[in-house]
Amino acid sequence: MSDRETAATIVAVLDVGKTNVKLSAAAADGAIVETLSVPNPVLPGPPWRHHDLDTLSEWVFESLACLSRRHTFSAFVTSGHGSGGVLTGADPDAGDGAMLPMVDYEQPLPADIRDGYAPLAGSFLDRGSATMHGATHQARQLYWMEQCEPQAFAQARWYLGVPQYWAWRLTGAAASETSFLGAQSHLWNVAERRWAAIVSARGWERLMPPFAKAWQRLGPIRPELVRRFGLPDRLAVLAGGHDSSLNHYRYHAAGLRDFTVVSTGTWIVGFSGSTPVDRLDEHRGMTLNSDVFGNPLGGILTMGGREYSQIAGSDPPTDHVPLDIAARLIAQSTIAVPSFGEGDGVFPGSAGRGRILGPSAETAMERKALALLYCALLTVECIDTLSDDRLIVLDGSFLRDPLYAGLVASLLPYREVRVNLAAYGVAAGAALLAGQQTRRDPAPLTLGVATDLKELGTELTRYAADWRNLARAGPGERDEFEPTKGSFHG
């Protein structure tokens, strides 16, 4: 592909998040040209709370038609969050194509489904993670469907991850893909590159289509959709993949190797391709994921964004936190200790035990500063737990305030901390898939240097040590904790 052809290539990227869905026009180098977005609608049961795929389908197809009138697309690709899949029939034109509604993974499970699934889930390698909250994990969602709607389940044709569902709706071609199945689906054993034991035990092989690479062309858009919505008839639809894995691929395509990437948003998600499988501890939020090539990716995840909101409050200031406010909280040992969510995150036994110790954070800016301190310390814990990589890349929403990256860099003096301020990392990685087989040179990437906050000096080191000791303390031990000299005094 010539430089001129590369520059002219525009890729349509559908990014399906839990809360919002975005459709972007992206250049071949990953730069975002235009984006449309809409909330991801959720409906109440019966039979369970579920995503409104019918309404979303109209928006996706109409928006793609709209963008295609302004951009000449060479390919279409979807990224998706790892806890969603759709049990379909054989006909992508039968309504939204689903045989049963797509489960909203954040809803609580019925007790009998939770208890019945537990002994079927298999080993850590089969699961790739601990068994998490709500209806997370595609295997558990399948089990719920099978138990509650056996007749519809028996008539189903495919079970498709979110990206592959949209590819199927557009082309009629069904595919499985390793990065998505390797995102805590409990269906795919990444280390051994095989289906998890539950798939054969339940007879689910019939629902699993053949594998395709994330960048593989599944076909053009079906004539029915071309006629109905005015979609481009020669648009190549790619198989697509898991959102965080595609964000990792973005850096791989840029030529980075032996690095850890930490993305922040609702979740703090860390990935490293150099983490050995035997280092992974499911009780510390660690996961076994897959990159787009099918190789193991050591992972770690914790719901840092939700915890940030609980500490900072519902409407934190938009201005950057002044360094003197963070310094004052550190000096007076105002410490937020985990965990503020329903899960343990990276600290076993900490679920629901989150609280603030020391003098209170009175103002909205102080609460925001405390939340950033907490999330930076949580990020450093994730990095130290996951890998020994010297190069660390931070991206995502926490970078909107430079205090966060500065704190992380200051607490990791023997690592090289870089930041990517671009807001659409997942979409960029997805767009880069279109050039996977033709790219001759590394994809362009601009990384900034995180500034070491030398002004905080040893006080920050002391504060971090106290936080880690408190975070790791058992029930009752926090009240008896003796901080280092000069810090929190109760």
Automatic annotation (TrEMBL):
Keyword 4Fe-4S: no
SUPFAM superfamilies: Actin-like ATPase domain
Carbohydrate kinase FGGY N-terminal domain boundaries: 136-245
BP terms from Gene Ontology: carbohydrate metabolic process
Similarity field: Belongs to the FGGY kinase family.
Domain Carbohydrate kinase FGGY C-terminal per the UniProt entry, residue ranges: 258-437
PANTHER family per the UniProt record, alphabetical: SUGAR KINASE, XYLULOSE KINASE
Keywords, sorted A to Z: Kinase, Transferase
GO molecular function: kinase activity
UniProt-recorded name of the protein: Carbohydrate kinase
InterPro entries listed in its UniProt record: ATPase_NBD, FGGY_C_2, FGGY_Carb_Kinase, FGGY_N
